[in-house]
Amino acid sequence: MRPWIEPEDAPVNSLVYGGRVVAWVVLLLWTPSFVFAELKGDGTAMELWMHRVYLVFHEAGHLIFSWGGRFLTVAGGTLMQLLMPLAVVVAFLRQGHVFGAAVGLWWLGGSFVDCAPYIYDARLGDLPLLGGGTGADRPETHDWMNLLRWTRLIMWDTRIAWATHVFGSALMLLGLAWGGWALRVQRGRVDDLG
Length: 194
Fold this sequence. Notes:
It is a single chain. This protein has 194 residues and is mainly α. The protein has one domain. Helices cover 67% and strands 2% of the residues. Strands 1-2 form a two-stranded parallel ribbon.
């Protein structure tokens, strides 16, 4: 397991290292907007620019998982939204690029945080949906309203949302810590080949 989580031993190009430092600082500064996002109303993670990135994978997931019947088609949106950053983590780890995996872990955490307001809205149905209307107007199109009703967990929507938000926030912070540690270790391996 150690080779998978420790930074590579090879020398790191100074420009690459500098780019990683800049990326890490950007993520560090951006993380509070996710961690302290509200679960309802304005200021949710769904208001952040990154939501548009997650939304592309979310909507693609409905199509990709449509082979599995109604439940999997509906769940497929969230599954794909979470599977994409997880695939990034695994791909970078297999290549031995620990910093990239740490950024992928941050992305995965952000995806969980992005899901939380949608879960929180399961009973309320207040969020605007793609195609117009809200979950209250068109309950058949609100993924989490349906998923939690079908599984008889609808009364737990706000608790599930909070747990999702906390878990995602923890993954983001873990990704930052892992990435920061990788940068610290790699600092001694920077070459000046530019």
